[in-house]
Fold:
Amino acid sequence: MIAINGWLTVNNFVNSEKSNILRSMLVNAAEKCGISLTIKRTGELGVPIGGGFVGLPDFALFWDKDTHLAQRLEDSGLRLFNTARAIELCDNKVLTYMRLAQCGIPFPESYASPKAFSAINTDSCGFVSNAAKRLGLPFIIKEAYGSFGQQVHLAHSLDEAYAVIRSLGGREFVMQRFVKESCGRDVRINVVGGRVIASIYRYNDNDFRSNISNGGKMKEYRVSEAQEKLAVDACRALGLDFGGVDVLFDGDVPTVCEVNSNPHFKSTYDCSGVDMSLYIMEYIKERL
Ligand SMILES: Nc1ncnc2c1ncn2[C@@H]1O[C@H](COP(=O)(O)OP(=O)(O)O)[C@@H](O)[C@H]1O
Ligand SMILES: [Mg+2]
Structure:
């Protein structure tokens, strides 16, 4: 007899095959744990701002980045996995790095863009050449919001950097040291409840980005103690119940590339056979 009810809150507009597989895995895992998980598209949850949601379940597994909706659900008393704040910190890479810095967790030297109200033109780009002097060439330009490597660029010259920045139309970004040793390779480490449950080595011989959706390949991988500690510490710093941490190779000291609050764990499953959805559902069940 199923006693626990939850929502799997998903983006209103995303309907890819990959995301549907992930959703099915989560619903099936929930069933195995005696939890009835109902998929709710964010567009279905229309309540006036400040109004209370009715018919709330026992929890929501919030598989989206709609942090405003997440906050409104929490204000109504619903327990979210991950929390609105943790999702917010991961969604914006500037916020992620700020939080990691506050907690003394290593990531490559990074400079945030000044706030812009319209597209940036090259005349006001002194801050770019200053950052380039510190970071050296090439350096990384990463939009604050982005995924699948699509909003991450490598600038080999100042002119290339200006061209990228002009194309961003005033969107927030980070200029970051390019970790050459990690060119086209990193480790995705999946953490649930403060424990590493699976990790994979991702590599791409033709691109500096190792994302699988960008043509990267993967291999099974056993994390070192230092990598494990880094991933667990990063998730703790960001307040994540679970997450996927991208870790770069940087000499003897691993360094955080970014942290995902809604990791696409299907690749990890295909490579390692570890089903993160089961760990997530068991973790939620223990906490209710
Ligand atoms: N500072 C860096 N040095 C070297 N490679 C990087 C750096 N930042 C990102 N990358 C590469 O680009 C990929 C995508 O960057 P990431 O910050 O994880 O953004 P996304 O959210 O798009 O996955 C990483 O998996 C890594 O392979
Ligand atoms: Mg990434």
User: Anything to note?
Assistant: The mean pLDDT is 96. The radius of gyration is 20 Å. The chain is about 35% helix and 25% strand.
